[in-house]
Each structure stands twice: as structure tokens, then as C-alpha cells.
Amino acid sequence: MLPTLNLTGDIVLSEHFSHRLGRVRPGDLVLLRLPVDPAKIAVKRIVAMEGDRVTFFDSNASDLLQTLVVPKGHVWIQGDNLYASRDSRHFGPVPYGLIQGRAFLRNCSSWKMQMIQGYNDVLHYYFLACLLKPVIMCRIRNCNNITIVEDI
């Protein structure tokens, strides 16, 4: 997820209710279970929602351009570092049920908090998250071009 998240050391705050309310949209950074390994949780950006048309280069043949419509109940996710990311281009659209939360704040190694771009009304969501379910803090690490999330 470079340049948004560092490969190691970043701590991300995420809330776990907006995806249940259908409040995720393209541009949001989400935590999701990987379809290829459900034991791992990764951080990726939503690029398209159900019904949206996506055009991408096939991961098997870099010169082959494909277009598809994201099926109902799925999202299309990609990492910010397109050349070193395993995402929907490799395993296809992701079922909405695999989304675990939405990241809204990150702590870089200098202990400086930064809002993640594209997230509005942070205080509103933070207070709702505290009321409905605790905000989860996660540590970021990189493993085989997948940004892995570990609870702390």
C-alpha cells in the first residue's frame, strides 16, 4: 500500500460498522480477509463497487487489457502500489462479506497521526465506532507483496 502506508511500523485505526451499513465507496481503504488465504487480513483500496465497469491489465499477460463488470455483492480492490500488489487483478472481485473494516487514521513511525485521504467526518465515525464497537488498532507489515494487518 505504498505510498499511503509504510511497509512496516504503521499503526492503523479502523472502524468495523460502516461496511455493514453499506457506507464504503471507491477510494476507501478497507481491511479484508484475503480470498486466497482467509486467515490473513490485508489493507487495500476499493476501486469499484458492484455494477461498475473495470478495465485492467491481466496479471498473467501484462499486455492484455480486460474489462469486466463487478458482480452484485462484490467490490474491486487494488493496492496503491500497482506494480507490487496482489489484489483483484490476481484473484478477481472480492465478496462484500470479506470486508472487515474501514481504515480512517494511521500512525507513522514518528508517532504523527494522519487521516487517510478520502475519509470525511472522522470524528463522527470515531465516536460512532466507540459507541457501537471499539476501534481496532492494527500494525502493518508486508509479506509477498500483500500488506498484512495484525491486531495489537
From TrEMBL:
GO terms for biological process: protein processing involved in protein targeting to mitochondrion; signal peptide processing. Keywords: Hydrolase, Membrane, Mitochondrion, Mitochondrion inner membrane. Residues 1-57, 66-106 form the Peptidase S26 domain. One of its GO terms (cellular component) is mitochondrial inner membrane peptidase complex. The keyword Hydrolase applies. It comes from the Eukaryota. The keyword Nucleus does not apply. One of its GO terms (molecular function) is serine-type endopeptidase activity. Pfam families: Peptidase_S26. Belongs to the peptidase S26 family. IMP1 subfamily. PANTHER family: MITOCHONDRIAL INNER MEMBRANE PROTEASE SUBUNIT 1, PROTEASE FAMILY S26 MITOCHONDRIAL INNER MEMBRANE PROTEASE-RELATED. This is Peptidase S26 domain-containing protein. The lineage of its organism: Eukaryota, Viridiplantae, Streptophyta, Embryophyta, Tracheophyta.
